[in-house]
């Protein structure tokens, strides 16, 4: 099950804004037979427009925009990622 975690606002070198949502995949608890610790797994990122996002490093993302051969570099000033 995919669980929404938080939203990041990033900007490319031209000042265009990108709204990036962060999700974590969680296991379906109904399928577990034994109790125990549950891992959230690695984060997944998508823009609000549905474009794939790859986290490159602290505060830096690459957004796959249709028509662009390479991903668009996007940066955030979110203190959690800087």
List keywords for this structure.
82 residues; mainly beta; six-stranded antiparallel β-barrel; 6 strands; 0% helix; 48% strand; elongated
Q: Could you please describe the fold and organization of this structure?
A:
The protein has about 80 residues and is mainly β. It has no helices and six strands. It has strands spanning about 1-10, 15-25, 45, 50-55, 60-65, 70-75. Strands 1-2-3-4-5-6 form a six-stranded antiparallel β-barrel. A hairpin with a 5-residue loop joins β1 (about 1-10) and β2. The model has no long low-confidence stretch (mean pLDDT about 85).
Shape: elongated
Low-confidence stretches: none
One letter per element, helices H and strands E, the order comes to EEEEEE
Give the CA-CA distance, first to last residue.
29 Å
Give me the number of helical elements.
Answer: 0
Let me know the largest β-sheet: 6 strands, antiparallel, barrel
Strand order of the largest sheet: 1-2-3-4-5-6
The number of distinct β-strands equals: 6
Radius of gyration over all CA atoms, rounded: 15 Å
- Helical content, roughly? under 10%
Mean pLDDT: 84
Kindly name the structural category: mainly beta
Strand content: over 45%
TL;DR of this structure?
Helices cover 0% and strands 48% of the residues.
